[in-house]
């Protein structure tokens, strides 16, 4: 099996991916801040720090999985230029090091984890890889620039580098921290969900499916290019609320308040700076559906290994303690 270097190794995806790949027989190395190693739960044989790139034995590496980058700041407080310096600039740095350390005649795989935000922030259609990217934020534009770096350098060094870009939907799984946790806490506290009248659909990517896709790229004969990663079925927010209630062994509390009243409340929130405003309402109720047909065809899969509902159930089960209680804030 191959020797794989994962950058940004000690995050949620890196920890899960390292354990999966190690279980498949790959040798996995980490490139990250060493102080984070103790809390990552990763399965790494060697750890390298960012200030010691020259010490990495690049000639021994068969594949690089580039996870490191600057995540989207939902508060919009980050300097826009910092996204490009980290997401595009760091990608270029890793690619240059990868190419410089290549052995003659030995092909190396480079997998960049990008984002669907590099394509579109909103959509009314099902997104596939043929859609023309039109990112609206510095985060999305910087990720698109990073993608372009991969293919520009891979084309120049086609004899030793095969480049892939993965655009996953929102990734979730055990150890996940993010919007799903926040929504889970709402259900956990017994707060009714007031947006039941909105039947939106969103695509997700469960971590087992993400890991299986990466392993498929490492071991299969998959053409270089861009691939979206999503579970087979999109999920409605109402369905997720019901699954959360199921995990908590309680009845789902979904209120179907008139959308017209909700919009009025959101406009009041705009004026009074309340938690529910027009922007937050849009994010909570919009649909965002992504096609995974291209990656399944490339890997010769009829379906993804894990269904959307089973993947979501596994994630939600990890939010619950062994005694059946949910998060610490859950009333007893």
Notes on the structure:
Helix 3 (80-100) runs parallel beside helix 4 (138-156), helix 7 crosses helix 11 and helix 8 crosses helix 9 (278-285). With 332 residues, this protein is α/β, with parallel strands linked by helices. The chain contains eleven helices and nine strands.
Low-confidence stretches: 322-326
Shape by Cα distribution: globular
**Most strands sheet:** 7 strands, parallel
By secondary-structure content and strand pairing, the structural class works out as alpha/beta
How many beta-strand segments? 9
Rounded radius of gyration (Å): 21 Å
The ordered string of helix (H) and strand (E) elements is EHEHEEHEHEEHEHEHHHHH
Beta strand %: 5-15%
Strand order of the largest sheet: 3-2-1-4-5-6-9
Distance between the ends = 49 Å
Please specify the SSE layout and strand pairing:
Elements lengths: L2 E5 L4 H12 L3 E5 L5 H4 L5 E3 L14 E4 L13 H21 L7 E6 L24 H19 L4 E8 L1 E3 L6 H10 L15 E3 H13 L5 E5 L7 H11 L11 H14 L5 H8 L7 H7 L8 H11 L14
Parallel strand pairs: 1-2, 1-4, 2-3, 4-5, 5-6, 6-9, 7-8
Helix pairs in contact: 1-6, 3-4, 7-11, 8-9
């Amino acid at each position: 099996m191959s020797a794989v270097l994962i950058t940004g190794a000690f995050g949620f995806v890196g920890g899960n991916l390292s354990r999966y790949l190690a279980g498949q027989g790959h040798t996995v190395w980490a490139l990250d801040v060493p102080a984070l190693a103790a809390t990552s739960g990763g399965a790494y044989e060697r750890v390298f720090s960012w200030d010691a790139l020259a010490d990495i034995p690049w000639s021994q590496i068969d594949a690089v999985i580039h996870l490191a980058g600057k995540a989207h700041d939902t508060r919009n407080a980050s300097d826009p230029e910092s996204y490009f310096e980290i997401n595009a600039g760091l990608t270029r740095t890793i690619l240059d090091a990868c190419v410089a350390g290549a052995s003659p005649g030995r092909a190396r795989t480079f997998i960049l984890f990008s984002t669907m935000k590099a394509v579109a922030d909103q959509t009314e259609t099902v997104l596939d890889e043929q859609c023309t990217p039109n990112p609206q934020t510095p985060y999305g534009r910087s990720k698109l620039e990073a993608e372009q770096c991969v293919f520009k350098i891979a084309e120049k060094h086609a004899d030793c580098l095969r480049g892939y870009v993965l655009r996953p939907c929102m990734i979730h799984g055990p150890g996940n921290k993010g919007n799903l946790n926040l929504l889970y806490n709402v259900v956990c506290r017994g707060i009714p969900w007031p947006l039941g009248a909105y039947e939106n659909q969103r695509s997700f990517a469960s971590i087992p499916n993400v890991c299986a896709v990466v392993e498929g790229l490492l071991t299969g004969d998959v053409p270089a290019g861009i691939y979206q990663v999503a579970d087979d079925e999109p999920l409605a927010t109402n369905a997720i609320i019901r699954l959360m209630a199921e995990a908590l062994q309680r009845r789902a509390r979904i209120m179907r308040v008139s959308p017209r009243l909700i919009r009025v409340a959101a406009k009041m929130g705009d004026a009074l700076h309340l938690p529910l405003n027009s922007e937050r309402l849009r994010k909570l109720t919009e649909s965002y559906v992504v096609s995974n047909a291209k990656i399944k065809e490339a890997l010769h899969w009829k379906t993804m290994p894990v269904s959307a509902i089973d993947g979501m159930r596994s994630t939600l089960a990890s939010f619950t303690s062994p005694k059946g209680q949910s998060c610490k804030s859950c009333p007893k």
